[in-house]
């Protein structure tokens, strides 16, 4: 059983899709990093969840 499950997250700003169908599962004690270029939706994903 996952400690944290994020399933099928979508975030839109008008016609712009910032986050599209993101699913992440984390186990307790696991370290997770999210890497990507500027403007790819990393902060938006965390702010949405």
Automatic annotation (TrEMBL):
Full protein name: ABC transporter domain-containing protein
Listed Pfam families: ABC_tran
GO function terms (MF aspect): ATP binding; ATP hydrolysis activity; L-isoleucine transmembrane transporter activity; L-phenylalanine transmembrane transporter activity; L-valine transmembrane transporter activity
Any one GO CC term of the record: plasma membrane
Signal peptide feature range: none
Domain ABC transporter residue range list: 19-48
Keywords: ATP-binding, Nucleotide-binding, Transport
Gene source species: marine sediment metagenome
Keyword Transport in annotation: yes
SUPFAM superfamilies, sorted: P-loop containing nucleoside triphosphate hydrolases
GO BP annotation list: D-alanine transmembrane transport; L-alanine transport; L-isoleucine import across plasma membrane; L-valine import across plasma membrane
Chain segments annotated as transmembrane: none
